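Re-run with default settings, no changes from the original entry. Doing this only to confirm the output is reproducible before filing.
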Amino acid sequence: RKIVNTKKISLFVTIFFIHRLNMKRLFILLFLFAQTALNGQTGFGTYNDRILQIFQLDVNLRANLNNVYDYSNINGSPFLQEKFSSGNVQTSKDFFKNVNMKYNIVDDAFLFELNGKELYLEPSKYVKSVFLDSYNFVVRQLPNSKKSIDFVIELDSSKISIFCKKIKLYKPAEAATAIVATPKPASFVDKPNKYYIQLGSGPLIFLEKLKDIYQLFPAEAEALKKYIKAEDLEFKKEIDLIKIVQFCSAKV
């Protein structure tokens, strides 16, 4: 006569029902996943929902999402390009492709469309880069800036990197006076770009004139002067300035 081990039977029955339960839950999860796939969604919801979730994971990053300002009564435009374009955004949380947006130079922020609304994304330590219309925007701390960090365009990245800061200012409306009879409406005014270089991971250095480069690289000054003359380069032309910095980068 065999002795039945009730403890083993009980354990087997328990494992069997747990297995059945887990399989049932697995089928439910697979069904839900199939439904979201059919609806063109990810596990996080729609693509836009996922962007919003990523942007709002941290309260500090959420503070950098602002509502759109009204520019209808101002002459000109604050934007780098008028139409929305598809761009890519690299954050510390994720990478997003085909985000519909445009860059506001005056406010130094990206306007993007989300769930039928328009929001601004300002510079943040969470935003690594934004690639839009052939421009590669990165976040950097600029010398003498009123802000802690700014969006700048990375023109070239090597031993010496060079960056461009787009400048456009808001000019308030002017009322009529005894001298000027006609009032002037508010407007946006284009200003010359500002350029910065960065040696390795050091701080950004503002370039105001060609002499600044000679002073930064005294050992290469004479060779650089000959190169500029031979190539007929001009400091105020962006494409020429990039070549000048690349020459210095190859020498250091």
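The chain is about 30% helix and 30% strand. The two ends are 92 Å apart (CA to CA).
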